[in-house]
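Record passed on underneath.
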Amino acid sequence: MPKHSFIRSASTISLCTLLSRVLGLARDVLCASVFGTGMVWDAFAVAFRIPNLFRRLFGEGALTAAFVPVFTEYMEKRGARESWILVSVIATVLTVFLGLVVIVGEVVFYTVPRLTPISEKWQLVLELLAIMFPYMPLICLAALASAVLNCLRHFLMPALSPVALNVCWIMGILVLSPALGDTQNEKIFAVALAVVVGGILQLGMQLLVLKNRSTGHNISPVLELSHPGLRQVIRLIGPVVFGLAVVQVNVLADSLIAVGLAASPGGAGSFTLLGNTYEYPLRSGAASVLYYGDRIIEFPLALVGIAMATAMFPALSTYAVREDWEEFSATLHKVLRIVIFTSIPASFGLMVLGGPLVELFFERNAFTHESALRTASVILFYATGIWAYCSLHILIRAFYSLQDTSTPVKVGASMVVLNLTLNLTLIWFLKEGGLALATAISAMVQTSILFIILKKRLHLKGFGGISATVIKTVTASAVMAFVCIITLNLLPEHHGSLALKTARLFVPLPIAVITFLIAARMLRSEEFQYLYDTLVKKVKAKED
């Protein structure tokens, strides 16, 4: 990959992701206004996590991690024909397997409420799951197609495909939900249907581009279970599936804790365990505010961490196949420093401006001021770990490019115990904020351990500059946060005024960005100069 090209690829991904996230923010604003943070959205937040769990396992998570290095090796050593046969085999096996999973799932969702009495909120969870579960194979196949396109150095359409889901989601709320009824319990099914339609469009978009990129090699059904490439992918995917299953079950557990340990409106305020009575540590809506807080945190994560990791992964896989460890080390080092330089100020910024952001975009109609305060608290604790979330994606991809899928699994599995322990401890003091802080702490520890292991294993050199990057970036970010707080305190409280809500976010925000860039320049940040040379000068060259 030519020098700087992964930065430009990441820029393409980031710009497309920005469009998707803006539309995603619009959809969340609509959802917050219609559904607020009550039982209905709690049920949807839990139900939506189930197909997403499988997407992480058999889509953009484990399958992509195992498939990209193998496909890259085939392209490098065996040619296009064998590579596209591999794609056909993987796609066929994935379709058959996930189709069977959907059938079993639908049977379970239908029979459980008929075999045993369950509460209203869990009944709603199962009904929503029955509608959204077919989204799972659609998005997993779309992820496979995206992985192939990324290996072919095509990043535009994979980055744009989430736009289809967001557009369908928005149309479902604006057009379909009024036709289904007047209550939240009726309208929520419009969102579930829109998710499935969005999955169909996402897959269709990838397949259209993939057909044009296949250079005459068509993808067709090939059920060849003895294919050596399939066996290699399965060998690599096994540990990843196990590790991601543990991690994703842990993520799901956060939602289940948020629902199960929250007092229902009008219900009992305590529960009995082993003969002792305890007050519920959470209130109804905990899962909802976690959902909205997580959505805000995903903004910088997608623009920085995932974009850089996606663009870097094929390059690292190529260097690993060629055993070019000098370029491998240089690329990883550069990417980590850029991620640190961009994610730390994002962390500081969201910690300061999370409240004004939630007030402006979410606080209206069913989403009350109390809901805004609870969501801002969740964002505050989530934001402490943004640098770790972003770096984690980079480090895990580095291991995967080495076809080492077991090390991240072992480290991730150990973090589950830490995360669950912190969850069940911190919720008694910090409410749903404790769930967010537990996630952040676990990510920080996991990132640190993976970095140490990778550095020692490959005897990577030249990583001393990361410490300087951290020190300079934290200093510039602290100055930025201080100026931002002063600016925010000079502005009047909004008292429900949209104009003042807008001012309390968009007046401090540009001041914060300018302050950070000036501070970084004064501190002679190498990352600032690198990004300026790579991006800004490129734009000027095009203009000339």
In short: Residues 5-218+225-463 form one domain. The chain has two domains: 5-218+225-463, 464-535. The chain has a mean pLDDT of 81. The CA atoms of residues 168 and 197 lie 7 Å apart.
